[in-house]
Amino acid sequence: MRDDVLARLARNTAARERERMHRRVRDIERIDGPYVWSNDRRLLSFCSNDYLGLSQHPTVVAALRSADVAGSGSAHLICGHRREHAALEEALAEWTGRERALLFSTGYMANLGSLQALLGEGDLCVQDKLNHACLLDGAALSGATLVRYVHADVDSAARQLRTHVGASALLATDGVFSMDGDTAPLEALAQLCTAEQAMLMVDDAHGLGVVGPQGAGSVAAAGLDPCQAPVLMATLGKALGCFGAFVAGSSDLIDGLTQFARPYIYTTAMPPALAATALAAVGIVRKESWRRERLMSLIARFRAGAAQLGLPLMPSSTAIQPLLLGDTAAALDLAERLERQGILVTAIRPPTVPKGKARLRITLSALHEEAQIDRLLDALADGKPATLL
User: Fold this and answer.
1) Helix (H) or strand (E) holding 242
2) 138-171 as b/e: b if 16+ CB within 10 A
3) What is the mean pLDDT of residues 135-148?
4) Is 384 part of the annotated catalytic residue set?
5) What is the CATH topology of the domain spanning 58-287?
6) Mean of pLDDT over the chain
7) In what order do the strands lie in the sheet containing 358-363?
8) Which of 85, 206, 357, 368 is an active site residue?
9) Residue ranges in 197-247 assigned as alpha helix (H)
């Protein structure tokens, strides 16, 4: 007898509820600087990816409001590609030092489309064990053989490549890892890919805008040229404070993705207003280095305070500062305790992170004040005896 698919889904959902892994959507009513209003309460937020505070920048907001239409009306390849899209693609290519760029609606779609277009049956995709889910899903969609290496371990990556000699190979890694906040050893990985004749793809969703010269990202920070990292994906919805994503590379790469990346071909283009908004944000990021400098100062202040308190912060020099608790219940309980004190930090649980690695994913923004960092540290100190490892 066939299993009813909805009944099975309900059973799986109930199991997550029992294990305290059930997720619920939180309604945010409005935002003001680092504060959000939820359920009519004002909360100091430390869980946004708006690392530079650009989502509220007057120039960025004005660009959004200047649109003459609400949507693009079609896919890029039909009649949805507007001059706003073209201008943004040109700016992104120039910023990242590549010949061309191609816009996608989301980073998830960009990674699905890129890997599906670049790889096929018989090929090899080598990935870091902590890569974002969309890189793993993209490899699965491509039909290539997917193997994974120990997190940030170049020797492990080399063993995987050398175990599959003869296959066309692509090595994919996050630039900044979304849950741990650490950075990939990109220079060493690029050297490995050159030696093993593999292509390097970097997902720089959490690095673009925050690191590197003019905020050009992790690849630029590592000093790699386009030949060493031929495929660069990054998003527009984090440090740029907007929405969407892009892939940047050679003209041949972008031509190929235009022809074969199904999530690009068969999706309505992002609204032109969002492209204009992202273009304004790119200009601000490149010119206003003080935002990155301020963010780095706040990161240093938080880590110094956490060290004095003996808090179990994971090693990270980025805006993502994970507080490792291990137990799911401990992470949820501490998040709830902080919320009672007016501070919003998200508890991250399996399967987003491995079992036994539950944490608070604390993210900092250039919008935060030093006093707000200290307020968070004081709240964590109050919760330490009963909750922290």
Assistant:
1) none
2) bbebbebbbbbbeebebebbbebbeebeeebbbb
3) 97
4) no
5) Aspartate Aminotransferase; domain 2 (3.40.640)
6) 95
7) 320-326, 358-363, 346-348
8) 206
9) 218-221
Thinking of the domain 23-51+289-387, which architecture would CATH place it in? Answer: Alpha-Beta Complex (3.90)
Q: What residue type is 288 in one-letter code?
A: E
* pTM score, whole prediction: 0.95
**23-51+289-387 and 58-287, same CATH topology:** no
Q: What is the pLDDT of residue 305?
A: 97
- Identify the active-site residue in 57, 85, 132, 238: 238
pLDDT at residue 385 tops 50: no
Report pLDDT digits (tens) over 107-118: 999 999 999 999
Q: Which residue has the higher pLDDT, 73 or 16?
A: 73
Q: Which of 48, 72, 114, 178 is catalytic?
A: 178
Asked if the model's pLDDT at residue 255 lies above 50, the reply is yes
Cα distances from 19 to residues 15, 330, 334, 354, in angstroms, run 6, 13, 17, 14
Per-residue pLDDT, averaged over 258-286, amounts to 97
* 67 pLDDT tier (thresholds 50, 70, 90): confident
206 is catalytic: yes
Q: Where are the domains of the chain?
A: 23-51+289-387, 58-287
Residue 263 identity = P
pLDDT of residue 333: 95
Instruction: Take residue 291 and report the two structure tokens written for it.
Output: 């935002």
Among 225, 231, 232, CA closest to 207: 232
Active site (annotated) includes residue 178: yes
